[in-house]
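User: Structure tokens for both sequences below?

Assistant:
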Amino acid sequence: MKKATDAIHHAAAEGYTTSAANYVRGRPGYPPEIAGWLRDGLGLHEGRTVVDLGAGTGKFTHDLIESGATVIAVEPVAEMLETLSAGNPRALALTGTATSIPLPDASVDAVVCAQSFHWFATAEALAEIQRVLKPGGKLGLVWNMRDARVDWVAKLDAIVNRVEGDTPRYYTGAWRNVFPYPGFGPLDEQHFSHGHTGAPEDVIVTRVRSTSFIAALPADERAKIDGEVYALIAAEPSLNGKDVVTVPYETAAFFTVKE
């Protein structure tokens, strides 16, 4: 029988199967401004239904629940979905993919892809998202990115990006190539700055380990990446010897309306 993970990129299928715990521990949350964006941009409130598509471990699911809307989380990786369900019991968790959403036609008010759309930025996925959206429904796209305008962050990104292979990434901008798409209006774009504060082991080392294509590497290659990250921390005065550090992030939030 074909598994849901058969339809997703190999880096996601291999990496996220083993890195759910690191994802929870190492990934940042979202800035306070996202609550207003969900309310005013996507129109989420009590009585609305939203799909968290490619929901992972539920990092964004909690924000959606807080909007008051009914939340349906769709995720193909069983290990991620299990973690999501445990942490967000108020969400309905379903196995599915962006090209096979297990919901009826015109059944939801919004679909949100947080940290996920780059994995499935295709016409086929957009057609499936249109199918489940009601007329006038909205597609939201959200990403957290480290702020590489900070010198040490740029160095960290260089360590990570060197081993990305053919993995789709937000920063390349390739996901934009599917827009404009018939039946969706123009993309509205907003950006919010925030920080991820915690122990360097969590917010830097574990965050890197949670990256799909790094989690999928052989053990010796993962150890080499660890060594480079630890060396960077030791060489950076703002990080070395600190119990608590803040990694600067920028959140990019987009939405488009089904016409």
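Moving on to the next sequence.
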Amino acid sequence: MFKNIINGIKAYFGTFKLISKLGLWKYFAIPILISVLTGVSFVAFAYFFSDDLGVLISKIWPWEWGSETFATISTYIGGLLILVLGLVLYKHIVMALSAPFMSPVSEKVEAHFYGQTEHSHRNTSFRQQLARGIRINLRNLFRELLFMIPLLILSFIPVIGIVATILIFLIQAYYVGFGNMDYTMERHFNYKESIRFVRKNRGTAIGNGIVFVLMLFIPIIGFIITLPISVVAASSETVKILDEQKLISTTNSSGTPKEINA
């Protein structure tokens, strides 16, 4: 799996060049707008409501001594909780709403490397792509929260907290990579088949998601460039895996087998 994680990260190399070569920037205008508005909303929400959440958290401290210090710490804890949960929600909201715009991008990347391919379960309408994106991301959101909430509590325990924090990061990376890969998989697999495919290639999803999550911490620019380059990277690596595993049939425009030069 470690090798696949590295491959998922390496897929980001050259993405800017590929986006420009294929003229993909025009597809990203609305997804970037969705990303920026959603990101700014969650940051503002954390800023304005961290104090209120901090007050609620501070009530668990029953003693007089140290109450002021704990109240101050609680404010930061409240802000951190909102930011972490906001980051989880942010990813899935943006990926779900961007699905109809990212699927054509993934298809163009696939065509660039592999020419015409057979699409077994392709849904081409805007509504179907949006519905698939919402379904996949709702499923991933609930599963991610199921793992993250107990880990988030454990993260405040010394020593154990370090391990819990690392696991939180990897879980977030896995599910965001899953979402990025599904823009390609929706043309080739149905819902259940896509889940099985990602489980078998979870390293690739984690590698793609690691870079995605890290880039979000770049002020402002992170909300703008993260989705475009992560989708192109995921699409490039996903179709490569599909071809290696003989899960797609590649042909050129004349209908004869196409030699792959990825």
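User: Anything stand out in the second?

Assistant: Residues 15 and 164 are 32 Å apart (CA to CA).
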